[in-house]
Amino acid sequence: MAEGSGARRATAFASLLLMALVLSACTTVLVRKGVPEDKIDEAAPYGIEGVTIRAWGDNVGEDRREAIVKAAIARARLARATDIAEGRPIADVSIAFSGGGPDGAFGAGLLRGWTDKGDRPEFSTVTGISTGAIVGLFAFLGPDYDDELEAIYTSYTTDQLLTPAIFAALLGGTAVTDTSGYRRLIESYVDDAVVAQLAEQSARGRTLLIGTTNLDASRPVVWNITGIAASGSPDAKRLIQDVIQASSAIPAAFPPVLIPVVTPDGTRYDEMHVDGGATQQVMLLPPELSLREVDRALGARVDRTVYVVMNNKLKKPYEIVRPRVLSIAGTAASSLLGGAGTGDIYKIYAVAQRDGIKLKVTWIPRDFDLEPEEAFDPVYMRALYDLGYERGKAGDLWSPVPPDFAPGLEGAINSVEAGSRSASARARASATSPGTPGG
Questions:
Q1: Active-site residues (predicted)?
Q2: pLDDT tens sequence across 332-349
Q3: Cα–Cα distance for residue pair 355/47, rounded to 1 Å
Q4: What is the DSSP string of 127-159?
Q5: For residues 302 and 137, what is the distance between their CA atoms, to the nearest angstrom?
Q6: Distances in Å between the alpha carbon of 220 and those of 57, 58, 279, 282, 311?
Q7: What is the pLDDT of residue 369?
Q8: For 48-75, how does the pLDDT look when each residue is reduced to its tens digit (9 = 90+)?
Q9: Reduced to 3 states, what is the DSSP secondary structure of residue 159?
Q10: pLDDT in tens, 100-141
Q11: To which H or E segment does residue 220 belong?
Q12: Cβ contacts of residue 46 below 8 Å, gap of 6+?
């Protein structure tokens, strides 16, 4: 392998970030009306009321925690009324998608492979952060949207989604790129019909959650997308689009999203939201929320399974780093994100152990060594999509524990890595040949 080749993608990100830091000395402060700290908990996005619309992802607070648990109980009773009445055990399956930029192609391909395998479940809860917000949206809507996911993660190039905005940054902008193309992509897919479907699924007791970072508070925020859709607000679609865009807005590289809010006295402010990956790479529920409370209230046995899809390499291959600032910064950033993602999996694992949930985790294997030629490289993303497809079609390449956890379980983890080697080889080969495995 060429020296430092594995760090090229991270180096590209570091280049954007460092350029933004340099340019920040020449920029002016963005004019905005931020929410005072003592009003943040009562501010309503676009004036949409409801305690289930969103919550802090780290500490929701006792009042909101009780409201969220009550809402979860109500949803479960609605969705599982027949099973509860007849005393049958309830099988509940959820899935969480991490961030990873173009590496979201891995999760998109996995879903298609799972569909073709024939046993893909309907997920009761789906969560997504950053690129996982896009994958999670379509995973929630179901297999009918596999074609849309494939198109998003194999067809678009960098210049269709991002435009350099260096001069705008020099004149007081908020980032070194313009993401208008990405916003148009979001708006083309998140239309009135999709919002209506989200509202319908909310009425069935299903939930889609997307994570952002409130930059003013430096805290994660979990948005109840199905709750927003079901609110009936004329601004519901706009807010959902804002949240999806904000969830993947890499600070300084991509513009933040200002979400307008209204306080009870009618005063209008705004909140600055950026990439959910700035505070967490993947999420399930805040640890203070226990699903055992829901199960006890239902009075039924609930067999829960949570799948976690990491659109990242959690185990980085050994590589000789070039002694250059961008290579060093890029590799360090990649290592930081990988470590944070592993830590988030351990947090989910702790919650799963406490609440009696079966955990299944998968990630991009470290022997996948194809590198992108640009930020959004269709050839690279097609190879990752094909790799995800192979893993989804195989169906057994899931680890029951986080990476490097518990002596005696290494075999299960090693099989996840080893079982993907042939798939990795096929994915790399597909980068130079046409064809769609799930087509």
A1: 130 (nucleophile), 275 (proton acceptor)
A2: 666 666 677 888 999 999
A3: 35
A4: EEETHHHHHHHHHHH-GGGHHHHHHHHHH--HH
A5: 25
A6: 5, 6, 6, 11, 19
A7: 85
A8: 987 679 999 988 777 788 888 888 888 8
A9: helix
A10: 888 999 999 999 999 999 999 999 999 999 999 999 999 999
A11: strand 219-224
A12: 233, 235, 238, 239, 259, 260, 261, 262
343 phi/psi in degrees, rounded to 5: -60, -40
| 302 in Cβ contact with 155 (< 8 Å) | no
What SS3 class is residue 261? Answer: strand
Active-site choice (94, 98, 130, 233): 130
* Type of residue numbered 138: F
CB count, 10 Å around CB of 309? 31
Buried b (16+ CB within 10 A) or exposed e, 378-390: bebbbbbbbbbbb
Q: Are 365 and 424 in contact (CB under 8 A)?
A: yes
Please, what sign has the CA dihedral across residues 342, 346, 351, 356? positive
Nearest in space to 51 (alpha carbons), one of 296, 60, 264: 60
Type of residue numbered 209 = L
Q: How deeply is 276 buried, as exposed, middle or buried, from its count of CB atoms within 10 A (0-12, 13-18, 19+)?
A: buried
Spatial distance between the Cα atoms of 43 and 46, rounded to a whole number of angstroms: 9
Mean pLDDT of 297-305: 90
Active site residue 231: no
Q: Catalytic: 275? A: yes
Q: Do 420 and 391 touch, CB atoms closer than 8 A? A: yes
**pLDDT at site 106:** 97
